[in-house]
Amino acid sequence: MPDELDARAAEFVVHMRRSVDRSGLSLTALAERTGYSRTSWERFLDGRLLAPRRAVDALAEATGTSPVHLTTLWELAEQSWHHPEPAPTDRTTTQLRAPLTTLPVREVGGPTEGNSWGLAGYRGPSKARDATNAGTSNAGATEASSPAIPGNPATPPPPAPSTPTEPGAEGRAEGGPRRWLTFAAATAATLALATTAFLLTDTGPTTTPAAATNSPSPSTDSRTPLPPGVKCAGTTCTGEDAETMGCGGPLATTAERTTVAGTVVEVRYSRTCAAAWGRILRAGPGDTVQVSAGRDRQRGDVTVAGDTDAYTPMVAVRAARDARACAVLASGERGCTQ
């Protein structure tokens, strides 16, 4: 095991080894029973790679080990294992979801400093009262500025003609315009806030009907949330190891298979990851496997004596039929899937 392996991870690896030893299973038999390749189990049991949770469950079932204790050790090891840092938070999304209480509200109307116009119920100065006061002031000014003529008694100014008004007309004259302006301002402010809230919270449709109709399988750039343990999808999986990225095991199926001089060559496909890879079984040192999808090509080799299988890194595909696997044996024989 690596020297830098954490104590909790090392304890988990040792417990897995003991489970395999007690069961008497070889790595090849363990690979056949669990769905994970022999090479993957070599990495898991050497401490070079943390086994996925599904692989731990499959190991417990294949070896007859208590899954509770094994799972507990896996959780402790998983906490100490290196994980990629989380993706940075999208600042745009965070700003769009900011509470409306942080939005500045534009003041409606003129300045209110020095008066009580901003208070509820205050309607402002009466126009009728202002007109009366203005008339009285003007009359007094005229009387004061006109010199009295000797011998003639001062005559009071004729009273202003009184116009009959309806009861409450003065109140309507005072409150009507001001009340209407207040109502209009409040309505405009409410509509402005509602429009702002809608524009800030509506992110628009995530998919268009045309895109949904034209996609027979998950897109290679799908933004659908990935299941726990799966670390890539589509183009982000190209060149990556299927087991490391969580695309193997129960999430993978054999899409195509053929035999070349006794060696089995397969196309392995994961719909969840929208990716495929090649695998050879019953192989020997010097045998190679290649997978291609369009212009993308990946290759795997059997390099260690005693290994009987090998697989390639992944290539992104829209469907399993887009990938093709070929085997080239050390003897020179060659064969490909359909």
From TrEMBL:
A Pfam family of this chain: DUF2690
Positions of region (Disordered): 103-175, 205-228
Domain HTH cro/C1-type as annotated: residue spans: 15-70
Taxonomic lineage: Bacteria, Bacillati, Actinomycetota, Actinomycetes, Kitasatosporales
Entry-linked SMART domains: HTH_XRE (SM00530)
Biased composition (Low complexity): 131-152, 205-222
Start-end of Pro residues biased regions: 153-164
Protein name, entry field: DUF2690 domain-containing protein
Superkingdom per UniProt: Bacteria
